[in-house]
Amino acid sequence: MRKQSGAQVFRITGARQGLAEDVRGRQRRYVISMSIRTLSVIAAAVLWNVERHVAFVALVLGILLPYISVVIANAGRENAPSLPSTFVPAPSRPILPPPPAPGEAAEPVPEGGAGPGQGGPNAP
Question: What's the confidence (pLDDT) of residue 45?
Fold first, then answer.
């Protein structure tokens, strides 16, 4: 009987496959391609005096397949595009207004000439 608990269970759908499973899959692909290479070299030897063109294609396949197999086997793990990014962008800072052009007042002057020293409400 299973224990029922109130803990929330999360399902991971975008996770990569395990490392052991990944290595096993790459080894399986390598063995399959090397078996095909062995069969193509044997076919080239058997067909050399019978069908020279087919034997030549099989020989070229037998020569090129080891390189392709090693490149595929050593390609590394697959990318998991559905995993969330670990990059956290820096918070954006507000943009400062551009500096005033020469000849412009740094602060706007209120209309009516009620600035300090001109008899406004704050005048002494």
Answer: 92
